[in-house]
Amino acid sequence: MSVLTDVPATTSAADVVDTDILIIGAGPSGLYGAYYAGFRGLRVAVMDVLPQCGGQISAMYPEKPIFDIAGFPSVRGRDLVDGLVAQAEPYGPVYLLGQRAVELSRDEDGHPVVRSDTGTTVRAGAVVITGGVGTFTPRPLPAGEDYLGRGQVYFVPDPSVHTGHDIVIVGGGDSAFDWAATLAPLARSVKLVHRRDRFRAHGATVEKVRSLGIEIITDTEVTGLHGADDLEKVTIRHRLTKDTRTLPAQTVVAALGFTADLGPLQNWGLELQARRIAVDTRMATSLPRVFAAGDITDYPGKVRLIAVGFGEVATAVNNAATVIDPEAMLFPGHSTEKEN
Ligand SMILES: Cc1cc2nc3c(=O)[nH]c(=O)nc-3n(C[C@H](O)[C@H](O)[C@H](O)COP(=O)(O)OP(=O)(O)OC[C@H]3O[C@@H](n4cnc5c(N)ncnc54)[C@H](O)[C@@H]3O)c2cc1C
């Protein structure tokens, strides 16, 4: 099972969920927070607008090795996400994927109530926001909108789906080159099309793609996608000569980057700092029973790394636990002291 595409215990839309902790954002910080809440014996729900777990890792670099996770000299993004989901799994987190947290209100006891854009209502003892860079929306491929879900994709959560395809990848950044390298062994053909002759991707990544014999077509734009039902071919045009070519393609990956914004969270009355959520040393926000962790927080000296998000979310969950139950200890004891 790849947890990027399949996680257990997702509720259906329009449910009412009662939980001790609601985590908003299923990136690495949120997933580790789900483990930590479970470890503390708290019920936990995790909401994410994306249909998959893993946040930026799954969306942008699932195949990249990460070198600065403590204890792992190198771990592939996808494997880190799988490990985080597996670590939380014994505690049965409820995953609310494909749902954006849009509204925060309070029940009669002042506890947070969060509503999603699909109609789910979550009543929680505390909320931990691990929303990263906010909701990130892929930059569209203008010529490709009609073929979304019929051959045009923004993400490649499961490369094997594209086995045997002719694949056109559009973009010049790391993601475009990473997808090219990842898909080349599975595909019938891979071509990378970029509108400039220079790339944002790292030189080493570009060299790797060249060494795989993948055709890189520069100064060229995709002008049309064609096919009766599903995608069959793509027209490209050189920006300077205006020459056109038609390429066979059953898959087009639009890797043109993302726009990100805090979206609805901006209207919740949270104190913001440089368009991030201001937190104190407990990872408490300016709102009662609302904590935050990971890339979305800001304070003097903040460093945006996965490792830092892990530490912050452990702090957030432990402090939330003492708000939910004032008798609870802040420090839960070491995991090694727990009976297995
Ligand atoms: C190409 C690349 C390479 C990187 N390499 C490294 C590296 O080597 N080492 C390292 O430490 N870091 C690296 N990073 C940074 C790292 O990915 C981030 O620090 C990390 O993902 C932050 O985790 P997070 O859980 O805080 O947020 P994110 O991973 O951003 O996850 C946040 C999640 O919240 C969701 N969300 C936001 N708003 C809402 C809402 N209103 N409702 C529902 N869901 C919402 C988003 O959809 C997203 O899934 C890299 C980043 C990139 C782009």
From TrEMBL:
Pfam families associated with the record: Pyr_redox_2
Superkingdom, taxonomy of origin: Bacteria
Keywords annotated in UniProt: FAD, Flavoprotein, NADP, Oxidoreductase
Cofactor binding note from Swiss-Prot or TrEMBL: Binds 1 FAD per subunit.
MF terms (GO), sorted A to Z: ferredoxin-NADP+ reductase activity; flavin adenine dinucleotide binding; NADP binding; thioredoxin-disulfide reductase (NADPH) activity
Flavoprotein among keywords: yes
Residues given in the record as FAD binding sites: S29, D48, Q56, Y61, A101, F136, D295, T336
Domain FAD/NAD(P)-binding: 20-307
HAMAP family reported for this sequence: FENR2 (MF_01685)
Sequence similarity: Belongs to the ferredoxin--NADP reductase type 2 family.
Protein name according to UniProt: Ferredoxin--NADP reductase
Originating species: Streptomyces botrytidirepellens
